Amino acid sequence: MINLEERVVEKKSFFKRLLIVYLFFALIFIFFLQRTYSLQVSEFNNYELAAIENKTKEVLVQPIRGIIYDRNGNILVNNVPSYDLIIKPWQISNIDNFIKEISLFIDLKQSEIDFVLENFKQKSRYNRELILKKDLTKVEIARFEVRSFKFPNAFIDERYSRKNKYPQLFSHAIGYVGRVSNDQLSTILVDQSLNQDETVFRYSNGFLIGKTGIENTYDKMLRGLFGKRIYEVDARGKLLRQTDFIQPINGDSLFTSLDLDSHKVAFEKMNNRRGAVVAIEIESGSIVTYLSTPSFSSNDISNGISSKAFNALLKDANKPFFDRAAQGRYSPASTIKPAIGLFGLDEGLIDWSFSIDDPGYFILPEDQRVYRGWRKGGHGNVNLNKAMIVSSNTFFFSLAYQSDIDDLIKHLSNFGFGRNVCIDCFNPDIGLLPNPEWKMNNLNFGWFKGDTVNLGVGQGYLSVTPLQLAYYASVIANKGSHKKLTLVENQVPKILENLPVKKIQNSDWEKLHSSMIGVIDDPQGTAKRLKDLKTYTVAAKSGTVELVSTETKEDYRIIRENEGNRDHAIIIAFGPMPEPKYAVSVIIENGESGGSVAGPVAIAVLNSLIKK
Question: How confident is the model at residue 554 (pLDDT cuts 50, 70, 90)?
Fold first, then answer.
């Protein structure tokens, strides 16, 4: 007998299971419906882009760097075209036979052949070009062109090299370019929202970046923006056809403040001696001459130099890579005396009528230590004007002794010492403007009054760069008004500042200029030998940087037998007076006499600039 109640229960159970099955398949259907809608409608664009990306490839196109000019429009650095022999590996069935045939009229080095054999298979697999030989000669180009019909799988294309027309003159000021590290390249491409990928090079040396000088400081502006070639590719990444081309934007050209002619003069007069020349256009604060010697060829570094030659430059005792103009530290010696004199006037320690007797030495009251002047017997009665003309050490020893060291250091910093005075110079040194705190922290000694006395004649711990000295000379020439220095005109704003003084009047500046004119024009002037080298009036202050302290001239004659112990020659100058346009500093290592050795270089540079 059938139990109706059990049948009802079974029916209910069956329908429940059936409902679950229906629900399961319904959910599956909804899921597939949602995925179909997503693929076909809501996310269609994303998948379409992904598909396009999978079948296309972007190849970067290198831009051309900007040209660098001097202030008169003379090209200093340009992009010189060269011609490379390039092959299409995917069209060459036997590379050994190809090389054998082309070697009959094109000279190939073994290193060039090895490079091609090493990269041939990979380049062929992905339809990539391969450079067989760089920088073909005119003869090689002609030889290939008359036979080019035999080699449809090869062609000659233009590439560039970065060339400085005057590689010795501007090796430090303009600097050089070189290869890019992976980190540098990543930074460059990220800045342009690009990926690090394959590149069509316009330069024989591949990716380039400014390493030093203006090439480094203005690298982004000179470099330009990469373009793109977009290719259709197959599943293996093989290039099929070009679908789009976005032109690269070449770099901007730069008009520097540098003057070619004055560099030629400075380079000739320095005669490869160790030292530096810096000249400033006073009104604008533009650097017109920036030379460090001995120099090196920036083209050799930019476009390839053997390891042997490079190591020889590194080991050269004269350090040609060292930028003495902005990084060389030297005692300012007597060139500091105009600043010390101004300090004395501004603090009321002296006036123009104040005078002392100069016996040829100064005795420090605290310990009776003797500080000697350069002239035995001294200069007799001297005031500030005469002390400047004859360079009386005793006068400035005495003046410095009366000075508060903290106030004096603050005063010297206003002239640019101990700080960066250039907006766009490459890695300038700030020199050393010492104070009691510095001495205690670095030498573990307290400050002595004798340290201040030494500072009064530019000796002791104080050190400055030729760049700072030129800036300092321009501040004096412009009666305290000054702008920070620049190498490139109209690229950076320059604010006119004035020296913070309390008592200095225009008449004081005029008297100071007069005394500095006397350094050359007065019969007692320390640089009187320069008088006949120019036809206009020049204000100057020469100096001799002591490297080894000696008690007598006889002692110095002994130590000077070693050239490395000889004093440095130094001078600052500006002219033409009374309205000076240019200020210059010159230092010649181991040159001994500022007036007779460094002075002629300074006058020659001023002559070159003022003639214009």
Answer: low
CA distances from residue 73 to 70, 176, 253, 446 in whole angstroms, order as listed: 5, 20, 11, 54
- In this structure, what token pair is assigned to residue 418? 């101990």
Specify the pLDDT at position 153.
Answer: 94
Residue 427 contacts residue 401 (beta carbons within 8 Å)? no
330: β partners: 464
Q: Alpha-carbon distance 148 to 87, whole Å?
A: 12
593 Cβ neighbours under 8 A, 6+ residues apart = 542, 544, 569
Cα(278)–Cα(282) distance, rounded to whole angstroms? 12
User: Which tens digit of pLDDT belongs to each residue from 410-469?
Assistant: 999 999 999 999 999 999 999 999 999 999 999 999 999 999 999 999 999 999 999 999
Q: Above 70 in pLDDT, residue 559? A: no
Cβ burial, residue 409 (10 Å; 0-12/13-18/19+): buried
For the chain, give the mean pLDDT.
89
Please report, for the chain, how many H helices and E strands are present, in that order.
Answer: 22, 22
Using alpha carbons, select from 507, 503, 530, 501 the residue that is nearest to residue 518: 530
Residues 6+ apart with CB under 8 A from 67: 75, 77, 78, 79, 253, 254
Q: At CA 528, angle to CA 394 and CA 169, rounded to 5?
A: 105
Is 225's pLDDT higher than 80?
A: yes
The whole-angstrom separation of Cα 393 and Cα 382 is 11
Predicted local distance difference test score (pLDDT) of residue 396? 97
Residue type for 284, please?
S
Residue 85: in which H helix or E strand, if any?
strand 75-87
Q: Which residues contact 78 (CB under 8 A, 6 or more apart)?
A: 67, 68, 163, 165
If you ran DSSP here, which 8-state letter would residue 529 be given?
Answer: G
Catalytically annotated residue among 334, 391, 515, 585: 334
**Rounded-to-integer distance, Cα 53 and Cα 56, Å:** 5
The residues, any chain, with a CB within 8 Å of residue 585's CB and separated by 6 or more, are 276, 277, 278, 279, 335, 466, 467, 469, 470, 472, 473, 570, 571, 572, 602
Measured between alpha carbons, how far is 389 from 513 in angstroms, rounded to an integer? 11
3-class SS of residue 503 = coil
Indicate the pTM of the whole model.
0.83
Res. 265: pLDDT tops 50: yes
515 catalytic per annotation: no
